[in-house]
């Protein structure tokens, strides 16, 4: 990603509606759908500036892994102890008893998605969990994807096939960011038609404090529903899988 994305994410991750709600929903699902013991080592692959690792650090021992030195520097600023500038292939998985790997909005950044998912599968110990999120629907491709250097967006069927082909067993999978789906899609199409999209080079769209509060409240409602149901559509996908040989 471009450097400005890391700077922006670090500044906004603890307050911007999308980061706050996504991280809370993912944490909720991990607690609901996995049996990862508290205090376990979990590997946050493509950790970025460490916002999610920081959020779960009272529950688990997160290991921050990223190929960007800037990202790792920000993780250290958060006080995260286990930080590594490394690829999945280079990282020594045997130095920690890792119980789970997490990739939140990372796989879409990697050109060969099959290869990275297979690498994670091969490196994880038997019984380990794999928690992933990706953006949904190629038809929603926008300037935002280009700024963040995405290669693709997914539907749930093809994303879960990607995980299964690597060897993972899907335990739970759903779309999410569903309650804000209609206004988000409408805005994207209006921006394309009016040309407003081409003028937006910000990695995170600016919103007023009031709108941020409203969006955060709406998005956070999903944490009370997801896990109990499977959303049939949404702006993102979450899948929780496990490695069983």
Low-confidence stretches: none
How many domains in all? Answer: 1
Number of strands: 7
Q: By helix and strand content, what is the structural category?
A: alpha/beta
The biggest beta sheet reads: 7 strands, mixed
Distance between the termini: 34 Å
The CATH topology name reads Rossmann fold
Helix fraction, binned, reads 25-40%
| Series of H and E elements | HHEHEHEEHEHHEHHE
Describe the structure.
This protein is an alpha/beta fold. It has one domain: Vaccinia Virus protein VP39 (Rossmann fold), CATH 3.40.50. 39% of the residues lie in helices and 18% in strands. The protein has helices at 3-12, 17-33, 51-56, 69-77, 113-123, 143-147, 156-166, 181-194, 209-220; strands at 41-45, 61-66, 82-85, 98-104, 129-135, 169-176, 236-242. It has a 7-stranded mixed beta sheet with strand order 3-2-1-4-5-7-6, with helices on both faces. Helix 4 (69-77) links the parallel strand 2 (61-66) and strand 3. Helix 2 (17-33) packs parallel to helix 9 (209-220) and helix 5 packs across helix 7. The longest helix has 17 residues, at 17-33. The two termini are 34 Å apart. The relative contact order is 0.18. The model has no long low-confidence stretch (mean pLDDT 94).
């Amino acid at each position: 990603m471009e450097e400005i994305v890391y700077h922006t994410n670090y500044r906004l991750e603890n307050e911007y509606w999308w980061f706050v709600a996504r991280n809370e929903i993912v944490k909720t699902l991990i607690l609901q759908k996995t049996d990862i013991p508290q205090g376990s080592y979990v590997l946050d692959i493509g950790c970025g500036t460490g916002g999610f690792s920081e959020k779960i650090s009272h529950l688990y021992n997160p290991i921050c892994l990223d190929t960007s030195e800037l990202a790792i520097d920000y993780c250290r600023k958060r006080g995260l102890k286990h930080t590594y500038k490394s690829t999945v292939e280079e990282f020594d998985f045997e130095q920690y008893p890792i119980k789970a790997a997490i990739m939140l909005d990372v796989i879409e950044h990697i050109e060969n998605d099959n290869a990275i998912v297979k690498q994670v599968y091969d490196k994880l110990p038997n019984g380990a969990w794999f928690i992933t999120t990706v953006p949904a629907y190629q038809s929603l491709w926008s300037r935002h994807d280009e700024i963040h250097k995405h290669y693709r967006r997914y539907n749930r069927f093809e994303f879960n096939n990607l995980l299964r082909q690597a060897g993972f067993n899907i335990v739970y999978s759903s779309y999410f960011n569903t309650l804000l789906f209609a206004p988000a899609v409408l805005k994207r199409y209006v921006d394309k038609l009016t040309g407003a999209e081409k003028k937006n080079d910000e990695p995170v769209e600016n919103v007023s404090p009031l709108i941020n509060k409203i969006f955060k409240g709406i998005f956070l409602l999903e944490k009370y529903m997801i896990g109990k149901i499977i959303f049939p559509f949404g702006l993102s996908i979450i899948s929780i899988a496990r490695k069983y040989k």
